[in-house]
Amino acid sequence: MTAAGPGTPARLVVVHPDAGVLAEAVASRLVTRLLDVQSVRRPVHVVLTGGTVGIASLTALARHPARDAVDWSGVHVWWGDERFLASGDGERNETQARAALLDHLPHLPPENVHPMPAAGAAATPEESATAYAATLAEHAPDGEQVPAFDVLLLGMGPDGHVASLFPDHPGLDVTGTPTAGVHGSPKPPPERVTLTFEAIARARQVWVVAAGAEKAPAVASALAGAPVRETPAAAVAGTEATLWLVDVAAAGTGTPTETDEGRA
């Protein structure tokens, strides 16, 4: 764990042998986190991510032996970003998460699953974002725009983007709202909906999950504190803790030495 001054949230870098082990470890860590939180408060709010490792982690959680120890009736499920496509489209994070995990949880109430409105249900990404912001506010403490997410999962692209917050993209500058519509995404599809940095910053714990040698430069850049316009992932942190869960290939040789003591 990196050194932290008084009041500074901890940052932990955990390196796993490969992407498969990483996905299994994320699943185990998530089960433990949910159980720990449920022992002290309810409901629990978790934000899911897509991507290869993100969905693999949900698949691992679906078959985890402790899965049903979680009281899923007290869990609310959110997303950090979404592709603005029709409901049921196989490229939507929601569709993939339902197939990997959510459809296998009989005690998870449908009303506790909060997907970002799809194309068709919303006319534009902005309309979807506005509707999602309203739903977030319904479950937020008085005076807040979003719940204090107990864990917020983020994938990261080789360019250092998280959610749908891309380098040198207008979405980086959005303030005053927890959600934003995205146009001209450098990664297809071009239209998306995303949580903003302000919403992500409300999470108690933020977990950045990354695997593969192509992610190594971005991991090193983010951990070194690169400018947000260059590496958006550098700007994300939880109010209590920030975990970087990576495999050996993503850790590479450029991971800053001050995080070495946090490796496990």
UniProtKB/TrEMBL annotation:
All residue ranges annotated as the Glucosamine/galactosamine-6-phosphate isomerase domain in the record: 18-244
InterPro entries (alphabetical): 6-phosphogluconolactonase_DevB, 6PGL, Glc/Gal-6P_isomerase, NagB/RpiA_transferase-like
Any one GO biological process: pentose-phosphate shunt
Pfam families found in the cross-reference section: Glucosamine_iso
Swiss-Prot/TrEMBL keywords: Hydrolase
Presence of keyword DNA damage: no
SUPFAM superfamilies tied to this protein: NagB/RpiA/CoA transferase-like (SSF100950)
Chemical reaction(s) catalysed: 6-phospho-D-glucono-1,5-lactone + H2O = 6-phospho-D-gluconate + H(+)
Bias kind Low complexity: ranges: 117-127
Keyword Endoplasmic reticulum among UniProt keywords: no
Region (Disordered): 106-127
Pathway note: Carbohydrate degradation; pentose phosphate pathway; D-ribulose 5-phosphate from D-glucose 6-phosphate (oxidative stage): step 2/3
GO MF annotations, alphabetized: 6-phosphogluconolactonase activity
CDD domains in alphabetical order: 6PGL
Enzyme Commission code(s) on record: 3.1.1.31
Family: Belongs to the glucosamine/galactosamine-6-phosphate isomerase family. 6-phosphogluconolactonase subfamily.
Role according to the record: Hydrolysis of 6-phosphogluconolactone to 6-phosphogluconate.
Name of the protein in question: 6-phosphogluconolactonase
Gene encoding the protein: pgl
